[in-house]
């Protein structure tokens, strides 16, 4: 299959060399390169066209889609709006316009674009999937799952429908159902993005690090700007003790999706494990700005307070965390350190032992690594 694609690309390149301003040839070559995830090369093909050829609607659509893939969401939205203004209100244009707005977190605009497309084209599975994504971002998981159930019923061979359903189920806490949906998606398309995220993250949680590496790396190969894939890969690097690389990866993940609270927490752990309490505090504050009622954020703020000797501040944050979720792992860890600081070694050890037996491998391992840093005196700087 790969050899066939290479031969196809070589043939198209040869044709294109002899006719370098042929818009149709440029589009065919860009499509082939995108199928191989060589987005930079595809962008170069379209960018090298003359002004006259570059205004072709097919070229402009592909240029906008490449901007979308590469994370240049403002440019993508502008490109799709220009296509609409020129009279191209196709399903693909309306869908991708809404997707770019979704990536920009302009949810009202995305809903409006999707509703316009639904009115014009009916309940196409691709539109149901996209609308479900908007619900998932808003935390309306049940509404999203209902739409995805409809999409998978209408298009049972659509890998994206199963993959987005897997991620929505995963975020809603339905791990077994998410695993089944991800397996279905990957059987249909081994490169399905959301399914790779679910499968990779679940492998990470099970400490199946080689499998997690393969799945998350494939997700990043196909979607190099995927915030979720970057976040998972950064946590994998942390488990592998490559803290400098992990911190850079998770910082990139935060830039890609600044409203994903779990990634702020992952960044704080990476910073704590490097002894950078000031940066970790800033990350927990970033998480707090996303959601002020998330237990682990208050647990993290408590943890920083304990490390700085502010026991009263730690107690206040721990009360908030425990009121929101009594099982918050970060709050439990902060509580164990507070007990230790007050001389209750037995209570601290009991709490820590419970945390270190937690099924969520990243939290368990990060706590273990930080414990070792603190014992050596490195983590209190």
Q: Which terms would index this structure?
A:
Serine Threonine Protein Phosphatase 5, Tetratricopeptide repeat; TPR_rpt; mainly alpha; 79% helix; Tetratricopeptide repeat protein; TPR-like_helical_dom_sf
Topology overview:
Layout lengths: L1 H17 L4 H13 L3 H9 L3 H4 L2 H13 L3 H13 L5 H13 L3 H15 L3 H13 L3 H14 L4 H13 L3 H14 L4 H13 L3 H14 L4 H13 L3 H14 L4 H13 L3 H14 L4 H13 L3 H14 L4 H13 L3 H12 L4 H16 L5
Query: What's the end-to-end separation, in Å?
Result: 54 Å
Q: What CATH architecture label of one domain applies?
A: Alpha Horseshoe
- Helical residues, percent: over 70%
* CATH-defined fold name of one domain: Serine Threonine Protein Phosphatase 5, Tetratricopeptide repeat
Report the strand count. 0
Average predicted local confidence, pLDDT = 92
* Unreliable residue runs: none
State which percent range the strand residues make up. Answer: under 5%
Indicate the CATH class of one domain: Mainly Alpha
Please give the radius of gyration in angstroms.
Answer: 24 Å
Major sheet characteristics = none
Give the overall shape, derived from the CA principal axes. Answer: elongated
Structural class, by secondary structure, is mainly alpha
What's the helix-strand series? Answer: HHHHHHHHHHHHHHHHHHHHHHH
What is the count of helical runs? 23
Task: Kindly report the name of the CATH homologous superfamily of one domain.
Answer: Tetratricopeptide repeat domain
Protein described:
This protein is 79% helix and 0% strand. It has helices spanning 2-18, 23-35, 39-47, 51-54, 57-69, 73-85, 91-103, 107-121, 125-137, 141-154, 159-171, 175-188, 193-205, 209-222, 227-239, 243-256, 261-273, 277-290, 295-307, 311-324, 329-341, 345-356, 361-376. The protein is elongated and about 80 Å long.
